[in-house]
Amino acid sequence: xxxxxxxxxxxxxxxxxxxxxxxxxxxxxxxxxxxxxxxxxxxxxxxxxxxxxxxxxxxxxxxxxxxxxxxxxxxxxxxxxxxxxxxxxxxxxxxxxxxxxxxxxxxxxxxxxxxxxxxxxxxxxxxxxxxxxxxxxxxxxxxxxxxxxxxxxxxxxxxxxxxxxxxxxxxxxxxxxxxxxxxxxxxxxxxxxxxxxxxxxxxxxxxxxxxxxxxxxxxxxxxxxxxxxxxxxxxxxxxxxxxxxxxxxxxxxxxxxxxxxxxxxxxxxxxxxxxxxxxxxxxxxxxxxxxxxxxxxxxxxxxxxxxxxxxxxxxxxxxxxxxxxxxxxxxxxxxxxxxxxxxxxxxxxxxxxxxxxxxxxxxxxxxxxxxxxxxxxxxxxxxxxxxxxxxxxxxxxxxxxxxxxxxxx
Amino acid sequence: xxxxxxxxxxxxxxxxxxxxxxxxxxxxxxxxxxxxxxxxxxxxxxxxxxxxxxxxxxxxxxxxxxxxxxxxxxxxxxxxxxxxxxxxxxxxxxxxxxxxxxxxxxxxxxxxxxxxxxxxxxxxxxxxxxxxxxxxxxxxxxxxxxxxxxxxxxxxxxxxxxxxxxxxxxxxxxxxxxxxxxxxxxxxxxxxxxxxxxxxxxxxxxxxxxxxxxxxxxxxxxxxxxxxxxxxxxxxxxxxxxxxxxxxxxxxxxxxxxxxxxxxxxxxxxxxxxxxxxxxxxxxxxxxxxxxxxxxxxxxxxxxxxxxxxxxxxxxxxxxxxxxxxxxxxxxxxxxxxxxx
Lengths: 409, 341
Known about the structure:
The complex is a heterodimer. By secondary structure, chain A is mostly helical. Chain A has helices at 65-69, 78-82, 89-104, 110-139, 142-163, 185-207, 211-217, 225-230, 236-239, 247-250, 271-295, 314-319, 321-332, 373-378, 381-385, 390-400, 404-408; strands at 25-29, 41-47, 50-57, 340-348, 351-359, 367-371. In chain A, the strands form two sheets. A three-stranded antiparallel β-sheet of chain A has the order 1-2-3. Chain A has a three-stranded antiparallel β-sheet with strand order 4-5-6. Chain B has one domain. In chain B, 64% of the residues lie in helices and 5% in strands. In chain B, strand 3 and strand 4 (196-199) form a beta hairpin. The interface between A and B is medium-sized, with 30 and 29 residues.
């Protein structure tokens, strides 16, 4: 029984006296530290430069997003999903929107599904670019971060063209897209697809065969496949260890079963393999986007307007009484999905992002749970950091690819 | 004692110190601009034409900042340590020959502050003294990051000092002197190699030593990829985490002056110093030193950082044996008197 009147005891690594003259040093890394990717706090016990124990302490960015979801109407929660993993906002939108659609039993039109895939893959690339830049910066390669952020701008420009926002896009809506696709958008995405492989080569020139980069990443933070599964790692952290699990292949959502792409796998499960996997994932994302652009219908509806759960189209709201009333109810009261519970997983740039929604038939969810991939992946940090050097810890934090907004929620 | 010569030396040293400080200020500007170009940015360009007044603005800003002493710092050592680093940094430049001598107002003026017969050793000694500022500053800060930075620096400087010194032994064997003026004179001869008339620069007869010296010099000045003592992403700023205001900038000054001094010494020892085509002169020395400074910045913009154990492994397992092999080879060549070496 926990006594909530007392402050919670925090278990921390101790400064042990090893011999008369030797003592372990406890180093508090973060929450204000340049390379803990936000406000992660890591309590390290060091002997010399070797890490004896490592406790990640999270919660410095906790905003109660799940609880907010339980007090907002379904459509109102979409902007909040932007703010969990803010470097890949469209992917978060997608996970939530798909979960609600599954709950209501509606499906977005084909054209919207293709555009959702394009946006989600662009978000994956943007997220991987942020990861690559900061990861390289942590290990000391300064310039890569500037190059990746330069190319990320192009993706943000595409987002801005589509929805007006760059970071917290609030792009996906329940039922599809109510915005029109700007006519120049497909060409913008195509231009990016033509340009980007060259940029990947540029990063790889700087890192992939660089002896210092190899020395810093090879054999560091090894996670064996069984251990990775036991820690329920997902995403590149799992695939770097050679376990073939990608939600896009295992449980296809949207139209990923129509697309031809490969899932890159690592062999050793070290930092270097995870780096290679993510770089290859960016290439595969480009492949997916190109195929989507080829297959996407140029004309057709973007929103499943036939469903009662979806906001009525703007034009008919202004002209027909029935739609105006429906719109009024939708906005003031929200829509009430059927009773039931639903779990929808998508392959986020960091791993399996799942939204679990329990509906009691009212316009707000009874329970909303976000399975954020980096929260789960972060628990492997103490395992990886055992016996590592102090300098490896920043490489390990980087390789897990965390965004504290998503870890703490 | 020749008082006149002494006063002239003092004056020359004074001028040299000020030139170094000015160069250092513009080295920061140069580095920032150059790294910016490497990284597809523009760099400081708002303060004055091309941002040329930026170093002055930075200095004004740093002077006007509060000088904070942490509560659990060792106060006296904390205050003195940056000065120690800063004072020792330019001393190495005193033995750099900027030419032989010129006649000014009917007086013979040597273009070096002092010509001592152990100049190379003196440079190494002053270089290793500078690390005291880092160790004491890191220790006195009362901060664990600073302490780790100071420890790293100690180990690093001891290891690389050895390589730095040993890489020069080949040159000492060839010239038979430790004086930089003598070494400079030795390089003004011509070296005939396979019918080609080349300048007798030691980069040609001691290429391995040159590479070793270059690597060790980067490590010695705590610059990327050997910037472990101040590894920003691991130790925040390492030994100067707790420093602020002008005391912080003393460390900064020391680092950049060290870079310039090492570049001057490297240009003198390996690239023939003031020796060059058309007309010998200080401009050749400046150009050669500039190449090294460019190289420093280039490294920083390109390479990731070594890990502590890899850094030590590189020094003791790779560089040190190579330096010893180089000494042995040079000795044998000298013994058998091959070529014009």
